[in-house]
Amino acid sequence: MKIAIGIEYHGAYFQGWQSQPNGRGVQDAVEHAIAMVAGEKVRMHAAGRTDSGVHALMQVGHFETTVQRPNTAWVRGTNAHLPPWVRVRWACEVAEEFHARFSARARSYQYVLYNHAVAPASQHGRVGWYHRPLDIAPMQQAAKLLLGEHDFSAFRASECQASSPIRTMHRAEVKQQGQYIVFSFQANAFLQHQIRNVVGALVYVGQGKLDISAFGALLENKNRALSPPTFMPDGLYFTGVTYDAVWQLPPCETVWD
Fold first, then answer.
1. Equal fold, 2-103 vs 106-237
2. pLDDT tens for each residue of 197-248
3. Which family does the record claim for this protein (predicted)?
């Protein structure tokens, strides 16, 4: 049978989602814990591969197994074998045709930036930080230029292995919540470091180092070498996946609060 699960994790404790030779990938921890419940090895497939230091509020994955367990066992039993910084939120049996990655219609991320002269202590490792005041209005206007289908080469990591840089952005919003600035994005898929590179450029806009037209020119020029530096991973959260209702999955999206 095939089981889908929703997963939450604190990325600072891992070297990204993907399995690592040293066992420090989120995939390694989850596969080991599920195997303890199943009594057999399993292979996890996820909707998206988060980088080292990136968190997830709702990663979605699936695995196949020859054993039957109640959904509560896949949740509570697996969590009993996981460290406290990663948790399975839900589990359900899905049709054989379902695939966590290939059945996904869209992915959602948020980047949480603490904008204050002093770096946060209680939120260390959980939010990004910028020390100078940022002007939110031009950042909001610049983010709108990202909507729709574009070649995002200007915001793509040099080591990105995606076959095409073209993505369709469904949501690109910037909101202020007290000392925090929250960037929300949804697209059919994302390129490696795309959001961190976009956030770095939007911070330049908020500083006045880039105006809105210059930000648009970065996108149009498709040249990563002309773009601002990649922002830190600390504040980046994978917040959910959009699937067709036919798969009858539990809610697969949440938000940073």
1. yes
2. 999 999 999 999 999 999 999 999 999 999 999 999 999 999 999 999 999 9
3. Belongs to the tRNA pseudouridine synthase TruA family.
d(CA 32, CA 221): 45
**Residue 71 Cα distances to 26, 38, 176, 248, angstroms:** 21, 12, 39, 14
Does residue 257 have a pLDDT over 90?
Answer: no
| 243 labelled binding-site residue | no
Q: Cite the active site residues.
A: 51
Burial of 45 (0-12, 13-18, 19+ CB in 10 A): middle
| In the chain, where the domains are located | 2-103, 106-237
**CATH architecture, range 2-103:** 2-Layer Sandwich (3.30)
> Hey, how many other C-beta atoms are within 10 angstroms of the C-beta on 162?
15
> Given a cut of 90, is residue 158 above it in pLDDT?
no
Tell me if 156 sits within 8 A of 165, measured CB to CB.
Answer: yes
What pLDDT is stored for residue 93 in this prediction? 97
Do residues 90 and 6 lie in contact, with contact meaning Cβ atoms separated by under 8 Å?
yes
Alpha helix positions (H), 127-181 = 136-144
CA nearest neighbour of 114 among 105, 106, 122 = 122
